[in-house]
Amino acid sequence: MGKQLMATNPITNETSLKSKPKLRLALIGAWLAVALYTLTVYVLSVPVVFWMRASDPLTGVLNLTEIVFVSIDLGIDVFISLGFILTAIYLFTRRSDDWFVIFTSMFLITFAGRISNTVNAASAVPGYEILTGVVTALGDIGVVVFCMLFPDGKFNPRWVKFSIPILVIGMLGMYTLPSAPFYWQNLSQPVYFGVTLAWYLFGVFVFSYRYAQQKGILQKQQTRWVMIGLIGPLAWFILFYVLQGVINLTVDSSQINVWIYKFAAQVAGIFLFLMLPFSITISIARSKLFDIDLLINRSLVYTGLTIALGIVFAGILGSVSLLFRTINQGDQSTLAVAFSALAAGALFQPARRRLQRFVDHVFYHIKIDYQKTPVELRKTDDPLEDTTLSSYRGLKLIGRGGMADVYRAESPTNGRTVAIKVLPPSFAADEQFRKRFMREAETVAGLDHPNIVQILNYGEEAGTYYIVMEYLNGPDLRTLLKEQKRITLPTFVPILRDVASALDYAHSRGLVHRDIKPSNIMIDSSGQTPRAVLTDFGIAKIADAHTKITATGVLGTFDYIAPEQIQSSGEVDAQADQYALGVMTYQLLTGRLPFERPNTGALLLAHLTAPPPDIRESVPETPRHVAYAIQRAMAKDPKDRYASVGAFSQAIESGLAATI
Fold this sequence. Notes:
Elements: H1 21-54, H2 64-94, H3 99-114, H4 117-122, H5 129-149, H6 164-176, H7 189-213, H8 217-246, H9 256-285, H10 292-327, H11 333-346, H12 348-364, E1 393-400, E2 405-410, E3 417-423, H13 425-428, H14 431-445, E4 455-461, E5 464-470, H15 477-484, H16 489-508, E6 511-512, E7 521-524, E8 531-534, E9 541-542, H17 548-551, H18 563-567, H19 574-590, H20 600-609, H21 624-633, H22 645-657
Antiparallel strand pairs: 1-2, 2-3, 3-5, 4-5, 6-9, 7-8
């Protein structure tokens, strides 16, 4: 890792037009011409297509049923087109000083016409072939060239620019020369589909190559956003063109099956097509860039699910239709569709869960089945209030944690106040919980450090497992943070120094805490100087000790979990504690976590891929070297972090001292 801060929002001027006013004016004129032409074609196409599809081809009389179906079809088509056009206008008005944004805006407008059923249908009307063909050709040309240039406006690899003349001539010829044998409506569907798909895949190939060559994290994230957007239209074309060729739809007098198919294709198009303008807007605006991984993850799941269930639906529909025709010669297509849809719907949830686990494991190497991990462990056990446990008297419940209750009690030997951690009966019935609880006692009892909670006694009495510890009379850091909203850097430095000292001591003895968080650090003010004390070693891992306890799923808190802990929870080392401490440092100094996401899956992906934020965005007065130290402690690769927790603490302390 370099010595510079990991910037999260760098700015580039590679495609700026601020110093080229004449070129900017010319491009704005070109944008207006393209936008006006495309909108004119769209406006002219709507009434022609409506009348053509809603009227009887022989008598020309409008059919009420057809009017309803066509109106719905046109309404969805207009909605999708407006999504593209409004996005294009938004980008143009916000960034008309950038030639690549102007080009992208033009491409979105023409691509809206290219994917429009209305414009495509109008191309079959005599006299409209060339008018609509220009828009369709510009849309296909635009999407391929966009893939060649995004995000920096440069051709990479350079040789791809020589393919542009072939692309332009080929597309204009295929869409604007009705009398030619290579005119798109004169080609067979497999040939036409193959040609367009080949160009799309070529664009995706170049796009993927550019992504692999990029080194900047910002540009990589921008490219990933657009990549997921491009998958939407591509998935739609593949899914519905193939489905149309595979499924032999029964066409009765009302054409109900044709309309069901078209309606399903249009509804799917709302989501799959609008992914493109949405992702491009996010990418160019550079807002929420690093939420892309969740979108990619979920897109892989739901795209795969859609294709799988579509195949299941088609297979069941074909089988059931054949069965109904064998039993009853009448038309039972509607019943067959309903039965197939119910069968596919019943498979949705179990298939989604299995596919989610597969995507997480194969593509992201997430070894945690977080869909089954409970958010919290709820206990209904009655507290041991005002009782005696192993001669410790007057137990008073003072706290409840994830897997234990904590009581204040009086020592029978010297009358000192002690804290007793008790494993509730509901957990004590589980052998793994019992072993983990008693292992904590054995582990911490062997440690002797002023900043690690002292174990005085431990054991089991009448099925109750307990650990007797020194009583700490101060609050934990979670409580302190709630009271103060955020902790100042000078106040936090002594706390960090104590915690780092405790962790370095534990690490030197082969012990990894694995659950560093504010609630596990207490402030004890019983001495002359307050001290931070590290507690709760319940899920600590002894280095090189591969026990069944450490292999049973994830251990730790997701808000502070290190990337390597997500991908291999049984093989973490001291660097995982440093990562968690970096997260906690950011949280205490700002009052908020560095990675805040709406669900567990998004949070884990943020830990794996999102760069650590610069604390100065929330607390501008933070010294630069302190900001760098926090980011380095939260580096994704353990090798990029500090050699020890103590080194991280020293870097924070030095950064503060340099400003005093």
